[in-house]
Amino acid sequence: MPLGERPGDKSESRYCGVETEFDDDIPNLLTSNLSFGAFDFVVAPMMDPSYRPSLVHKNSSGSVALPFAGSDLVLSPSQWSRHVVGKISSWIDLDSEDEILRADSETTLKQEISWASHLSLQACLLPAPKGKSCGNYARCVNQILQNLNNMQLWLRIPLVKSEDDSMDVNSDNLIDSWEIWNSFRLLCEHHSHLSIALDILTSLPSANSLGRWFGESVRAAIINTDAFLTNARGYPCLSKRHQKLITGFFNHSVQIVISGKLVHRLPKGNTAVASNSDGNNVDGGQGHPLRPYLDYIAYLYQRMDPLPEQERFELGYRDFLQSPLQPLMDNLEAQTYETFEKDTVKYIQYQRAVCKALLDKVPEKEALTTTTVLMVVGAGRGPLVRASLQAAEETGRKLRVYAVEKNPNAVVTLHGLVKLEGWENIVTIISCDMRHWDAPEKADILVSELLGSFGDNELSPECLDGAQRFLKQDGISIPSSYTSFIQPVTASKLYNDVKSHKDVVHFETAYVVKLHNVARLAPTQPVFTFTHPNHSTERSNDRHKKLRFEMPNDTGSAMVHGFAGYFDATLYKDIHLGIEPSTATPNMFSWFAIFFPLRTPICLHPGSSLEVHFWRCSGPTKVWYEWGVTSPTASPIHNSNGRSYWVGL
Amino acid sequence: MPLGERPGDKSESRYCGVETEFDDDIPNLLTSNLSFGAFDFVVAPMMDPSYRPSLVHKNSSGSVALPFAGSDLVLSPSQWSRHVVGKISSWIDLDSEDEILRADSETTLKQEISWASHLSLQACLLPAPKGKSCGNYARCVNQILQNLNNMQLWLRIPLVKSEDDSMDVNSDNLIDSWEIWNSFRLLCEHHSHLSIALDILTSLPSANSLGRWFGESVRAAIINTDAFLTNARGYPCLSKRHQKLITGFFNHSVQIVISGKLVHRLPKGNTAVASNSDGNNVDGGQGHPLRPYLDYIAYLYQRMDPLPEQERFELGYRDFLQSPLQPLMDNLEAQTYETFEKDTVKYIQYQRAVCKALLDKVPEKEALTTTTVLMVVGAGRGPLVRASLQAAEETGRKLRVYAVEKNPNAVVTLHGLVKLEGWENIVTIISCDMRHWDAPEKADILVSELLGSFGDNELSPECLDGAQRFLKQDGISIPSSYTSFIQPVTASKLYNDVKSHKDVVHFETAYVVKLHNVARLAPTQPVFTFTHPNHSTERSNDRHKKLRFEMPNDTGSAMVHGFAGYFDATLYKDIHLGIEPSTATPNMFSWFAIFFPLRTPICLHPGSSLEVHFWRCSGPTKVWYEWGVTSPTASPIHNSNGRSYWVGL
């Protein structure tokens, strides 16, 4: 049964499995491991571990059945697929120097996968590559992947590769097991059915090194009972760092699998006392010998806070690629306005900014005599008009408001709002593109919300440049400036989703996305800044920025699948608004991050730095970004001339 | 006029150019440089070098014409395109820290390229990147390349980048200028219109370092007059190493361009004495001041041996990708037989092998009494039958020959041949696939020519395994063994040709190709060996080989676009036959090399080695290769399950 009921959480990580020995009696194996609310699934060997194809050929003349555990009929199809993950024989070694072992391994691997497919299992666990070299193993798995339907292959990867684990006598230094995974998946071309089962032991690498895995397709974490400590009462527990890691797995849909034998002597009287030292058997029906470990994992699960409402709302958007809006070219729909208008945090920030600006513009003694001209450019259905009027009320300043909006459909709503609220004497509605409006007077304050996830990507600079004509020389723009930020990320899920389109266009497009299964490899750095009003004579909104990212030394190597982009805007003086992670405005939901993919992921090794260029370019009818990596190796320039992705003027 | 008439040579490298200063009077520039049989073309600046867009904007109010040299009307369209290569202003620096210089550079570059396109010039010379970083320069050139029709862009690259040349104050070690080229072309995605003009100065890097360039798209070599030495008579000449390099350029269609001033004081009485030290002017119509350098280059050209006939014949095949034959699945055409039968060298080797085998099989004293049974399997139109009968005659041994051929069309020719030559009593023709023939007796000698460029790639192993049934236990197979070889190569032309198909299939196909513009980066290594007859019980023709290539230390970095493949076959004892470069049989033309591409080229840095896997795999109806690089970075496994390229059984 599931580890617990966490409100809002419907992810796979509620289910916990157990790794078992070979057992020909599969129904009994399920009963002993799954009964009495114990585990949800077993990770069980499918083939007699003593089987070797090369021995069969010599000793038997007739055709004998392969020594699989049970037969397809001993369980129902749904039992097979819901409760059994096939464990591929762990003795196989496709990169062995021993030619017979190599051939036996390939034959067995193919037979077992074929059997697992026959049973419609959801996943098979592939043993970890034995040495540093995995070329032939990957070649064989890659062949299998080409013909696989829905089954996932979980490649077992030790989180820490201990030295004696390595069969490669030539290994002169410790192997970063991520490198093995990386080679394997590159050889298999990031195949979406190839994922990772991490082996968790006592020692853990650094937090940065662990962090890399959250951008990879980890499906399971196999925790050995050896990794558990003993608490004061004699029960198994995990170190703080292990606990944090497990919680991370829960939050990233990684299923936990308990492995190993009972190694804790429990206090007397506990129902789960093991009757033998053999681990994986039931002790006379009293309960599962590994129950204390399962209970502890369930405790960790149940201890987590429920998902905040915003997170729950955004669950369906996690790592889902969306095309950015084109609000200048297209008109937004009512539903879109509806959603964004609910972001109260954002409008409170705007209201605070307008308050400050009004207080700066109009001294207390002029409050009753001076009327400030405030123009909302891109008024939509009116939320900024409301925020501005509330600011006026709050500060006791008098306002004359112009609400300029190019979408005639939103203008309909605006008229209704003004009538409903009785703002007719204060608010003038202008149905016009701000770039072409012939204003009857100039504004003291220009308020706009034209920012995209990457700040300028919805063409706020071009719009506000166009509106600046009717801002007084000493007028204020809210926002007064905004800056975009990027950071390199591992994002294998996003990479695979982009790749699935099989064209260059999708690799040269920026996507709006709720980043979740992503590893952020270095702190963000600022890219482009725009300031308003801009009175310089030779202004251009084209930009070029070269950035150099250094990964923390203890991260190890990592794969850069692209760049996560954010923005931060200064609305007025100290009032800011943004999604740059280190300074993000809390509880604001109007913007997800933006993701710039790389056509070929770039592997960063420790000590090497990543040099990337971003350009903002423009033509008569469009604005676009180009990007490219120049170090450690040069990538193609992405989106040359805006051929794949652009924003229309 | 051309440098000379070299029989068989029609390449561009016959034409020699000269780099000039800016001259507004283009017709005069042409007259002074091209008259009297001097140079064939000029590399001339198109824009007044004092022009800066940022100054124009400030100083002029109206619209003035850009200060181009001349106008489009001063030359005829064909003069422009035949005699002028546009030289882009050398002051441009698109990666400067100075924002105004950067903007001026981009504007000027685009204006000049636009002008050159307007004139339909064949090529423009782009100045060398100023520093180590060339991201913005590449981005801008890449934008230009997207919209270019037929014009080539020659990026100037110094063969040796001297330290003071570098504008980058942070450069801590000498820059390998190949790295700059490599970054630039990766950023521009190996664009086929982007090529190289190498700047040749006094010092030359190592031969291995120079060799890399022959796999790149070098179009011109600009030789500065400073690079010339002075011979005993006071005339300019070049060092032996320079001479060898220039000859290499001639052989690879690289055009020579002379640059610089007259720096040699010629002996009195010479017509080409310079009347001033200013270099690029005519000395009163007497001749071109740089004439002595041109004459020396022409001397080097004329000194070359004419192309051997075989080379001349193969000229049209150079670097041209051909799909390998499928002689087992398809029947060859008469024309194909015709071509291959002309390869006398090959059949002489076969005849020598059969002679040796006959002498070994039949002692002198049994020569008249013993008849040897020789079967030609895959007899085609009979060349091996003839070679075998000639061997019998030469050794005085008696033969009974079976000619087995599956192609019914070739069998028609065979019958004609036997009748014509009167071989009816000696030769039996069998119209049958050797794998299915029910032979009336067993053979002493089995002769075949089933080898492809990669040895086993036309399925010789499978065919001979099938024929082995009717070879006596002590019988001889000619060939008795064969081995394939590979080596990593730079081959940008081949890479671009494969890439032009815009699919994965072509990148996972091996091609037969006459390799020419290719840099061989490391000595060949053996891949798969097959031996016949093969009496082992557990024989399989599947193979797996892991190879590790080390580049010579003085090569520098280089790009691996794929692998060149060859074979060597032992016909019998010491008689071999093959195309592996170090042991290739001279004057044999039946086989070009084979080329296995890489989907993403891999850059090899000094000291790093290249680990590559090749697999020979088989299924019920086909045989295929898979290949993949595992170090320095992992590539995808190419051609998984033979999805893109296979040979039918």
From TrEMBL, chains A, B:
Keywords of the record: Methyltransferase, S-adenosyl-L-methionine, Transferase
Q: Where is the PRMT5 oligomerisation domain?
A: 481-647
The family database entries (InterPro entries) matched by this protein are listed as: Arg_MeTrfase, Arg_MeTrfase_PRMT5, EF_Hand_1_Ca_BS, PRMT5, PRMT5_C, PRMT5_TIM, SAM-dependent_MTases_sf
> What are the PRMT5 arginine-N-methyltransferase domain coordinates in residue numbering?
309-478
Domain PRMT5 TIM barrel: start-end pairs = 39-303
Query: What does the sequence similarity comment in the record state about its family?
Result: Belongs to the class I-like SAM-binding methyltransferase superfamily.
Question: Which protein is depicted?
Answer: Protein arginine N-methyltransferase
